[in-house]
Design a protein that fits this description.
single chain; 608 residues; alpha/beta; GMP Synthetase, Chain A, domain 3; 5-stranded parallel sheet; 4-stranded mixed sheet; AMP-dep_synth/lig_dom; ANL_N_sf; Acyl-CoA synthetase; AMP-binding_CS
């Protein structure tokens, strides 16, 4: 395969589609649907001609609103071939948020599934066309209708060759933790530098396999399952329901895979649950033994210390008898490397998978940096770090500790917000990331926290709430989300919310008839499990970081709700305002009956 580099996504796609036209480019689990590169290229050409016939031109904006499905790809890539800015919106957005995103984007055309038509029409943004997959409700266009709109004299090759590297390829809307989402304008040049950069470090090859299961509005899915695919030729398996990712992985056995930390945590919890629930006593004992050996190996991996010869020998035996089969059952037996990003992952989770023989490369980046700015070569991973900056990127640290980055990954601008753009990118081209990051002597980065989220307690001690939360969440899969409180306070407390997906299996395993958030938050066994988990997490924290009291809220926090963004990032200001009365209860003397302390009963008066 040619190692030539291309200036735009369409140019790269036109090349990659000719490498092996009969190879499968897109599929669903079990090969329910497949699309070869030849078929893919034909559909791109047909749909680009149709969009042109509707009046879509270079610089126009086309939005997509649909699930993870094969049809998404040729539609999106077709819009790119016209020089249009194509982007995805989250399917869960209510009408008022749709109004903000589509209006800010200047979207003229939306391509969607029929169930979203009513919401699109009620959002208040005037659109030229709504194009529907599957079936076309009255007043919308079908895909076949769009294709029929093509002009006889449309010059497809001239259209895609007219796209320029500095054209805006896509918009990524920020998660909106501190206000309305901003539209990050990302160019073809940004994305090509991104794809070629990670390919150089990670060794991505034509025919590598990966899944698409996160929303396509999430930069991580767009990068790994769209842009990497059309530039490098990886095969993508579309998983329509993210809850079915486990069987999809077993079906595909991907060579590459990545997920956000919460998915890795859920996989870990599922493995541990399966081991504990194994009905055969002999098999259960073997699983527990192998996982204990894996844990010991993972601890050395986290510490960066050599594996003792006796433990190495025991791990090889555990691998031969149990772990190799476990990786195969998970679908991880062909995986060359795995990624975790979008938020810090608990070290214990990294250690767990390293012990299983599934090394996770933790990455760092942000939408404003085209996704991934730092990563480690798989053979040089240092667990707990987010690797090194991609070649061609540079950094410096501001006097207040904020990490600044400059280079070809930096976005063009925030759409329609020159003031916000000026705040983010200074006159010298440095992007102010908002993160506190340390860099060791070998260039490996460690993310401390967001600058605005650092806690300074009543004694003046600086702490990372994210680090505290991740350490405690790693101790129990029951915790879905938590918010550590402590800024200006004498000690740390936390609001804890149970994990909605773990709640059902937990209730079933423990014979609880009601698996609602309210019932579980009041159940004594759940409270004891959380108390034990907080205590276990505290054991890995310094005394000043430890959570002294907590409250289990009788609700689940849904993605895109009041408390967390669609990517499950905490809206700390909203949480502080919404739960102000309960936060005050956490510091009252004596505490209310539903305010708990960890199992080891720390003394709240301690501040050091």
């Amino acid at each position: 395969m040619s190692t030539a580099r291309f200036p735009t996504l369409p140019a790269a796609f036109q090349h990659i589609a000719t490498v092996d036209p009969a190879a499968v480019a897109l599929r669903t689990p079990g090969d329910g649907q497949t699309l070869t590169w030849s078929e893919y290229a034909t559909r791109v050409r047909e749909f680009a001609a149709g969009l042109d016939g509707l009046g879509v031109r270079r610089g126009d904006t086309v939005a997509l609103m649909m699930g993870n499905r094969i049809e998404f790809y040729p539609l999106e890539v077709a819009a790119q071939h016209l020089g249009a800015t194509s982007f995805s919106v989250y399917n869960t957005l209510p009408a008022d948020q749709l109004n903000h995103v589509l209006d800010n984007a200047g979207a003229r055309v939306v391509i969607c599934e029929p169930q979203y038509v009513a919401r699109l029409r009620s959002c208040g943004v005037e659109l030229d066309h709504i194009i529907c997959l599957d079936e076309a409700p009255s007043g919308t266009l079908s895909v076949s209708g769009v294709i029929a709109a093509a002009r006889a004299d449309f010059d497809f090759d001239a259209a895609w060759r007219g796209v320029r590297g500095d054209d805006v390829a896509t918009l990524i809307y920020t998660s909106g933790t501190t206000g309305s989402p901003k539209g990050v304008e990302t160019t073809h040049a940004n994305l090509l530098f991104q794809v070629y950069g990670i390919a150089e470090v990670l060794g991505i090859e034509f025919g590598d396999t990966i899944t698409s299961f996160m929303p396509s509005a999430h930069i991580a899915d767009r990068l790994t399952a769209l842009y990497v695919q059309e530039v490098l030729g990886i095969q993508v398996t579309c998983v329509a329901d993210p809850k079915l990712i486990a069987p999809a992985l077993a079906d595909l056995r991907p060579t590459l895979w990545g997920a956000v930390p919460r998915v890795w945590e859920k996989l870990r919890a599922a493995i541990e649950y399966k081991a504990a629930a194994e009905p055969d006593a002999e098999r259960r004992a073997a699983l527990r033994w192998a996982l204990s050996v894996a844990t010991a190996r993972g601890e050395h991996a986290l510490a960066g210390t050599p594996l003792p010869d006796d433990l190495a020998a025991e791990w090889r035996r555990a691998d031969e008898l149990v772990l190799r089969g476990l990786r195969a059952a998970l679908g991880f037996d062909r995986m060359r490397w795995a990624l975790s990003g979008a938020a810090p992952i608990p070290p214990a989770t990294l250690g767990f998978f390293a012990g299983l023989g599934v090394p996770i490369t933790e990455i760092w980046g942000m939408s404003e940096l085209s996704c991934i700015c730092s990563v480690s070569p798989p053979a040089e991973v240092r667990l707990g770090t987010v690797g090194k900056l991609l070649p061609g990127m540079e950094y410096r640290t501001a006097p207040d500790g904020e990490f600044l980055v400059r280079g070809p990954l930096v976005m063009k601008s925030y759409r329609g917000q020159p003031d916000k753009t000026g705040e983010a990118i200074d006159a010298e081209g440095w992007l102010h990331t908002g993160d506190i990051v340390t860099v060791d002597e070998d260039g490996y980065l460690r993310v401390v926290d967001r600058k605005k989220e650092i806690i300074i307690n009543a004694s003046g001690k600086n702490m990372s709430p994210t680090h505290i939360e991740n350490t405690i969440k790693a101790a129990t899969p029951l915790i879905g989300a938590m918010s550590v409180i402590g800024d200006g306070r004498p000690y740390n407390t936390a609001l804890i919310v149970l994990d909605a997906e773990t709640a059902g299996p937990y209730a079933k395993q423990h014979g609880l008839a009601d698996d609602s958030a309210a019932a579980l938050a009041a159940d004594p066994s759940v409270i004891e499990a959380i108390r034990a988990g907080v205590a276990a997490g505290n054991a890995h924290l310094s005394r000043v970081e430890q959570v002294k009291r907590f409250l289990v809220l009788p609700v689940f926090w849904e993605a895109g709700g009041d408390e967390v963004t669609l990517t499950m990032k905490l809206k700390r200001k909203v949480v502080a305002e919404k739960y102000a009365a309960r936060i005050a209860d956490l510091y009252r003397e004596p505490p209310a009956s539903d305010i708990r302390e960890p199992a080891d009963g720390p003394q709240p008066a301690s501040t050091t």
